[in-house]
Amino acid sequence: MLLSALSAPAQTETPAQSETQAKTPAQSETQSQTEESAQKITLEFLNALIEIRRVLQTDLTAGYRGDPAAKNEREIALCYPCFYALLAHRTAHFLYEKGVPVLPRMMSEIAHSRTGIDIHPGAKIGEYFFIDHGTGVVIGETATIGKNVKLYQGVTIGAKSFKANPDGSLVKGVKRHPDILNDVVIYANASVLGGGTVVGNGAVIGGNAWVTHSVPDGVTIPSNYVG
Question: Taking Cα atoms as reference points, which of 140, 133, 153, 150 lies closest to residue 202?
Fold first, then answer.
């Protein structure tokens, strides 16, 4: 339908239609403001690319240090699904923070479809981040992840439950996902859930663990843990 609409021949307007569709002063002002805002965000984005590139370089470094199979950082940049997903995320996150509608989510879902890694553009992710293998990783909108964090395939940084309005619709705009602090490792298929859950600095979460409560600094949660 979209392609049909884009390829449809333009229809000639009658004078009456043109007069009816003429913009009011308020509409013209709104369009002008929208264009000015778009230009401003575009320039800010172009200026931010240097910093985004710097942070992506730390992700390459983390990948090379964290995967003994990696021959060099170029291999990671060209071949690893993690880096593709992070390239999309770090650009999409900037646009999300600027309030750009739809586009950040489109970018994240394109990366999701290509890599199997689902990172909401609202998630805040620190430097030196690496996802080994990557397939099935989910990171929710209100999650925060510190520096030097490593995840394995199948990890979920997700919500535990959702508050509902009286009409049954879900409450939006609230903290739903965990905070992962610095130097954390989370092994394959572990789930860390809930907006009040904090995984402390240097903690390790074992594979297949189900974590819904905060984890102190330096603590190791064993595999298959539930709690």
Answer: 150
